[in-house]
Structure formats: structure tokens, C-alpha cells
Specification:
Structural class: mainly alpha
Oligomer: single chain
Distance between the termini: 42 Å
Number of strands: 0
Helix content: over 70%
Number of helices: 13
Largest sheet: none
Radius of gyration: 20 Å
Length: about 325
């Protein structure tokens, strides 16, 4: 993490943390403690959370295109944050209201996607409507985006549009220690749930009916995986806004080396997502100085070609 933090530290050398000059040392400590280290740690945790969520959602829906951004889960979080800011909801327990409502919004969006993905018969064993799932996610994202635009239009706050832009484009500039703590706990719990479910996830790869024949409680494993994915993606959205395609890119890249076995894929996807987002954030910060490109733009530029290729391949 120290080496990564130095990427953004040309103006304040890392060695200043041990400078004999008290003023230089105090400035360096403040910058690294309040900005550099939290940002790198947030990139690691957000990337890991989004990638793990993507791998879990792809297992639940048996759809290689499933990921929090494309299914509207991230947009639900952004809508919650926008509502909290527009309505002046008070902070609670040291957390900003926007962060809390983003978490709630992402969780609610995931539940809506889960219900929409179920077939008309309502049987968990029959699995999900894979062909219509992505369309539901795109429609849900558009609906949430329209609601956000409506809230911004009706609000009398001139700064709301600027704040909403952060949630729409995604970034790590507002990730502070409280949000990082929530991210760490959510990531640990979510990944633990995924690893405990790895054996059943492998059985799901052959189909829901076949897995049920092997003794797997399909409904229970679906709910467990969705809970883990929702928990991690909601925490990521609450800390960094909409950062798309990490949950699509990282799992597919890591499958090339680690295969489809869930016990290896889930932690590998987390590692790949962390590495990917740290690299993208460095690019976003350094490519056009002093302008900082929102990291969500970088990940979308990388992810859209893969999305189009997978869509064409699936067609």
C-alpha cells in the first residue's frame, strides 16, 4: 500500500513522514493519513467488493453479463444518496446520510432484481430468466437515473447536481475512514459467505434442477449468494458511487488463470478487482494532470468492449 500511495505523492514525498522538519512532517502525515492511504485502501476494498459481487451474481443468475452496475444495483445506491442530500437527512452514528441511504438503496435494488429474475412459475428450481434479466437491469438503471434527474430538477439546492454527478460517475475522493471500516466489514462477511457456499455454487454450474437432484437447497443458496453480493456492492456504492464493469472485468480475467471453481474464483476475483481498480485510479489521477478523471469513466472504457464481446459471443 505504501508504494501505491506514493504514485500520487510527487508533491509530498513519502520520506517527509520522517523529516526532521516538524512542519514538513506534519503536512505529510496529514496528507497521507487523511487522503492518500484512505484512497488506496478504498480502491482495494471497492474493487474487491465489486468483483466478488460480480462473480456471485454470475453464479446466481448463471449469466456471464451479471454484475452490480449492469443490474441496476449501483444505480439504486446512487438514487438513495441523491435523496438523502436533497432532503437534508441528518447523519447518524458518524456516517453521512448519503452513505447510509446509498447502502439501503443498493440493497433494495438487488431485491427488486432478484424478484424480476424469477420465472413466472415462481419456482427457484427452475432458476432465472437469463434472457430477460439483463434487460430488466438496464431498465431498472434507467428508471433510477430518471428518478435522480427528477429529484435534482425539483430540488432548490444548486450544489445537488454536482454532488449527484459524483455518485453517477464514481470516484474515491470521498472515501474516508468510517466508509472504509464499513467496506472492510462488509467485504469480510460477504467473502466468508461466498467461500462457505463454494461447494454448492459449483453444483449450480450444471443447472438448478441438477443441483437440486444432488441435494442442494437451490432457493437457500440463491438467497445466500444474493445477500453476500448485495452487502458488498452496497458498501462499495456507498463509498465510491457508480463504478461500473469491475464486476464484469475481474471475474472473467481471473477465470482464465483460476478456472470456474468457486473456492478459487471468489478470492481470485477479489484480488483481481482490487488490482484493477487501484490501477484505474492511478490512471485517472495521472493521465491529464491537474484534471482528475472520475475512475468510473476509466472502468467503463475498459469494460464496455468486453461487454459487447460477451454479448456478441452469447448471441
Amino acid at each position: 500500500m505504501t508504494a501505491l500511495a506514493c504514485v500520487w505523492s510527487a508533491d509530498v514525498p513519502f520520506a517527509d513522514l520522517w523529516s526532521s522538519n516538524e512542519a514538513s512532517r506534519a503536512v505529510a502525515e496529514q496528507i497521507y493519513r487523511e487522503n492518500r492511504f484512505p484512497r488506496v485502501l478504498a480502491a482495494i476494498l471497492v474493487g474487491a467488493a465489486l468483483a466478488s459481487s460480480g462473480a456471485a451474481l454470475q453464479a446466481v443468475f448463471r449469466n456471464p453479463l451479471a454484475e452490480p452496475y449492469l443490474l441496476g444495483i449501483s444505480a439504486g445506491g446512487a438514487l438513495g444518496a441523491t435523496l438523502a442530500t436533497a432532503l437534508d437527512f441528518p447523519s447518524w452514528g458518524g456516517f453521512q446520510a448519503a452513505v447510509l441511504l446509498a447502502f439501503v438503496g443498493a440493497l433494495m435494488a438487488s431485491l427488486i432484481v432478484y424478484k424480476l429474475g424469477q420465472p413466472r412459475e415462481g419456482s427457484y428450481v427452475l432458476g432465472f430468466d437469463r434472457s430477460g434479466l439483463l434487460l430488466c437491469g438496464v431498465a431498472l438503471s434507467s428508471f433510477f437515473a430518471a428518478l435522480m434527474a427528477l429529484v435534482i430538477t425539483l430540488s432548490s439546492k444548486p450544489q445537488l447536481a454536482q454532488q449527484a454527478t459524483f455518485w453517477l460517475l464514481g470516484g474515491l475522493t470521498r472515501a474516508y475512514w468510517p466508509e472504509i471500516a464499513v467496506l472492510g466489514v462488509s467485504m469480510a462477511l460477504g467473502l466468508a459467505i461466498l467461500l462457505m457456499s463454494a461447494r454448492d455454487v459449483d453444483a449450480l454450474q450444471v443447472g438448478d434442477e441438477e443441483a437440486a437432484g444432488l441435494g442442494v437447497d437451490v432457493a437457500r443458496i440463491h438467497r445466500r449468494l444474493l445477500l453476500a453480493a448485495s452487502l458488498m456492492s452496497a458498501a462499495a456504492v456507498a463509498a465510491a458511487g457508480l463504478i461500473g464493469f469491475v464486476g464484469l472485468l475481474a471475474p472473467h480475467i481471473m477465470r482464465l488463470s483460476f478456472g470456474n471453481g468457486a473456492r478459487r474464483l471468489f478470492p481470485a476475483a477479489a484480488l483481481g478487482g482490487a488490482t484493477l481498480l487501484v490501477a484505474c485510479d492511478a490512471v485517472a489521477h495521472l493521465v491529464l494532470p491537474p484534471i482528475e478523471i472520475p475512475v468510473g469513466i476509466i472502468t467503463s472504457l475498459l469494460g464496455v468492449p468486453l461487454f459487447l464481446w460477451l454479448t456478441k459471443k452469447g448471441g
